[in-house]
Amino acid sequence: MKRLLRCLRPAPSFEEPSPGGTGPRKGADDVRGRQAFGCDTLPIEQNPDKERVKQMCKSVQGRKVRRVYELGDKIGSGGFATVVGALHKGSGKEYACKIIKLPKAGCREPGELMSRDQVLREIHIASALQHDNVVRLKEFFLSKKKAYVIMEMMFGGSLVNYIVKKGPLSEEEARLVFAQVLQGISYLHKKNVIHRDVKLENILLAFPDDLRNVKLTDFGLSKVCQNVTGTRVGTPEYAAPDMYQSGDNRQFYGKSVDMWAAGVTLYCMLAGKQPFRGGGADSEVMLQRIVHADYEFDGPLWDGISESAKDLISSLLVCDSNKRLTAEAALKHPWLAR
């Protein structure tokens, strides 16, 4: 079991290479779940929310984060940002401060995983979201080189760390968590937000060892639209077959990619391992398994899991995106309706 659980630990981000590249950069620990392997570069000028983003930036000009908050120790870090504790000087309330490098407008330096437009897009999306199962943004500050995003503090850490520590979830626990995840995804989709990186690492617990209050986080790869071009983003193990289409086969994909990722997430909750991994996180073996939805409910662990739970996973891990359950439909599945 420990060998299986090691497969779920988070790891550094890497990015899909541009044409002619040598391939994605490998993380230091290949047994861990990967983060984003690509970011599209849609310029803010083409974003339908262009004016609102500009006004958003204008509204914080001249404000200094350290006048309002005392920044503390590092909580975590990833390919896009570092998260530190932040104590509000007036109220004494604890928050999390996500510090993101802010590149110059119109350019992206080598090694930078997010352009300035993408950073501002993440802040813009997160600032508009208000739901019990989505981590809330309180406010933000901009300097010449960094963005400081103040978020509600989630004291319980990520779901992946919870599972690595305690083992796979029982069906009762998974049902409790997954219903909340689907509520969050349903809310996003109603707002025409496609998360594009739903995974265990991006599900946070409000309090330690408490699965009754979990929330989705990390909108660095999210998009506000009905359909998205075939830009390959997200986390390889959780990416839908739609995202792996390439060349002449590359097509538009939409909200259903979040539902595939939700299916992978539920599988991981119950099994403590990835459904498609084989031969390395970026291997051709894993790719072929994903595009053919080649996974199994094998081993003694699955023998004790209900057919209803397996049916829900199978209804989400469907290659045809038009046949995948929506978030609303998944919430009505018999396994969750108990």
UniProtKB/TrEMBL annotation:
The keyword Disulfide bond does not apply. ATP binds at residue 98. GO terms for molecular function: ATP binding; protein serine/threonine kinase activity. The keyword Nucleotide-binding applies. Pfam families: Pkinase (PF00069). It comes from the Eukaryota. Belongs to the protein kinase superfamily. This is Protein kinase domain-containing protein.
